[in-house]
Automatic annotation (TrEMBL):
Broad class of the protein's primary localization: cytoplasm
Catalytic activity: IMP + diphosphate = hypoxanthine + 5-phospho-alpha-D-ribose 1-diphosphate; GMP + diphosphate = guanine + 5-phospho-alpha-D-ribose 1-diphosphate
Protein known as: Hypoxanthine phosphoribosyltransferase
Any single biological process term in GO: guanine salvage
Record lineage: Bacteria, Bacillati, Bacillota, Clostridia, Eubacteriales
Provenance organism: Pelotomaculum isophthalicicum JI
Length: 186
């Protein structure tokens, strides 16, 4: 394990197995349809890349990048779109792919925003769910893992842009962020 980690929470093998299951379920549920996968940069990138290769129906990609207003350690719920979708989503089946749902503020803002653009449907696929910290309710249609209230990195998730390339998910050692429960967004 990386020396900045306290513990491996999800191994490469566990993630791989679950991503395969999610891809199979999504392919069944959307049989005879096509989907537009909307990835939320940058955290969802690694998960999305693996997930779409397990989906067998016609799949298109687009991406949004968002940043939460407020301090760097607290999600305010006011989200700024740094990079919007390239194309219209009107009449299309949208599958939002996110790394982790924590407070739920980012996702709520984004799904309201996308809903107003007239898609045929919107569903959400999140690799990780941290329900203990939810502020806004979020309906996760496809969830990889429910995790405890720990700050995790790896498999796309960062701390100050580090650790995204780790192939597993680990709990970051509190000595790296100075102790206390973290609340970093984006
Ligand atoms: P929220 O649901 O609070 O609006 O924000 C979710 C975002 O916060 C995620 O997309 C992610 O960028 C960040 N986040 C929340 N919990 C964690 C965590 O445990 N580790 C990392 N690296 N990011 C997190
Ligand atoms: Mg994210
Ligand atoms: Mg981040």
């Amino acid at each position: 394990m990386h020396p900045d980690g306290e513990k491996i929470l999800l191994t490469e093998e566990q993630i791989k197995l679950q991503v395969t299951k999610l891809g199979r379920q999504i392919s069944q549920d959307y049989a005879n349809k096509e989907i537009l996968v909307v990835g939320i940069l940058k955290g969802a990138m690694v998960f999305l890349a693996d997930l779409v290769r397990k989906i067998t129906i016609p799949t298109y990609f687009d991406f949004v990048a968002v940043s939460s207003y407020g301090s760097s350690t607290k999600s305010s719920g006011v989200v700024r779109i740094l990079k919007d979708l390239d194309r219209s989503i009107q009449g299309r089946h949208i599958l939002i792919v996110e790394d982790i749902i924590d407070s739920g503020l980012t996702l709520n803002y984004l799904s309201d925003n996308l809903s107003s653009r007239g898609p045929a449907s919107i569903k959400l696929c999140a690799l990780l769910d941290k329900p203990s910290r939810r502020i806004e309710p979020v309906n996760i249609d496809y969830c990889g893992f429910t995790i405890p209230d720990e700050f995790v990195v790896g498999y796309g998730l960062d701390y100050n842009e580090r650790y995204r390339n780790l192939p597993y998910i680990m709990i970051l050692s509190p000595k790296i962020y100075g102790g206390g429960k973290q609340n970093v967004t984006a």
